[in-house]
Design a protein that fits this description.
Elements lengths: L3 E9 L6 E9 L10 E4 L4 E5 L8 E4 L4 E3 L15
Antiparallel strand pairs: 1-2, 2-3, 4-5, 5-6
The structure holds zinc ion.
Amino acid sequence: MGARDRYSRKLECSKCGASAFADASEDDDPQRKNAGFKVDRMPQGFSTDRPSADPTKHMIRCRCGSVFPFKRKTVYATGGEPRG
Ligand SMILES: [Zn+2]
């Protein structure tokens, strides 16, 4: 009830290969229309390019200049991602 769901997620730049973990949180409330997504701690080398309450639209900028969404809509087959 109104709790924030906190988790870490690995950011990986497909252009230069840089990777680091960011801390993020979402509202753990299925009634809400959007997840109230927020990045709580951005790792060194990455910054927010365009913030959004939707993790698939929250754009991250790598120091190499590449911009990519915090969370991709399509799931990559490379080993999958561990679920928190
Ligand atoms: Zn990069």
